[in-house]
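Weekly modeling sync, notes
Attendees: S.R. (lead), two postdocs, one rotation student

Agenda item 3: backlog of single-chain predictions. S.R. asked that every request posted to the team notebook include the full sequence so nobody has to chase files. The rotation student volunteered to paste the first one in as an example of the format we agreed on. Action items at the bottom.

Example entry:
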Amino acid sequence: MEQGLLEKDSKVLLGEQYDLDRPLATGGAARLFLARQLSLDREVVVKILRSQLSNQPEFRERFIQEARLLAKLEHQNVVQVIDFGEQDGYYYIIMEYVRGGSVRDLIERAEKLPIDVALAIGYFVARGIDYVHQHQVLHLDVKPANILLTPAGVVKVADFGLARLIDQTGLNRDRRTPVGTPLYMSPEQVQGANLDARSDLFSFGSVLYQLLAQQSPFEGKDSDQVLRRILTCRVTSPSSLRPEIPLFVDDLVMGCLQRDRAQRYPDSGRLMADLHAALGKLAIHDPEERIRKYLSGPELYRAVLKKPAHFRSRVVAKGRRRAWLQVLLVMALAGLYLAAESYLLPLLASWSERLPF
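Predicted structure, as returned to the notebook:
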């Protein structure tokens, strides 16, 4: 069956109602196919566990767990599972098909995303993460490729292949090996330590940083260098690469990218509150509409951002510092002049009277 799935002209029917059309992507553990659900005449995505892994209990159980976890989640910003099944020893998950591509595709296409669009996408990603955390699920692989966009501006968190349930102590139950994608892993993921919801928030911070600054905070020449940089966690602020980014957005991103998780946002709810406040400060009242308008015509899109009285970007802060330095310089020169007029000139006049010529 697996060989047939790779043949362009082959027709495979899963569960008597899912007609496979064409492959979409191939991962280390599974393949994704576009298919048509015959009963409802709609396109869906089929995720099929690789044949060599279907026979291994560990991978098979993990795949089944992914289906069960996703089946419990129903939210606008989370990809929905439709069905799960097994046929001829092959396990598959049926999911909704999200048209529009991923955030990774968007970043690769765009020279620079508008700040409002980047924040709007980040807001909905955080909302999806907050929802799954409320349902005691850790995603553990938050990255641009796992964030999907519809043409209508809807953002959906996808691919829960590494997801785990949070136990009563808030720790991850499986601590045998590191999990995640190197560029977006948290320090505790790199170390193979116990994980909690703050690990997803670190990964989210890496994604938001990339949306704003057009590069990852931990880029390196290879995976080893990337992981070392994550462990040292010496990150320059997004505004150091893009000065027009407000400093309160800097604070939000850096609040996620702390090596010590005790210094990060304590939970996704607090992060959501600050993201909502940041959108409000910039007068972004309909973030989904901002995304939709940008996707419909990036070359024509013009961001409209309010600059409140307390607005500060690195450019504004630098300009204010320069202005204050100029004021201080003028005051210092004026002080020197007054000192000279009050003390130095009379002193010179007194000395000149004593001179014999």
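Discussion: group reviewed the output briefly. The longest helix spans residues 314-354.
Action items: rotation student to repeat for the remaining queue; S.R. to check formatting next week.
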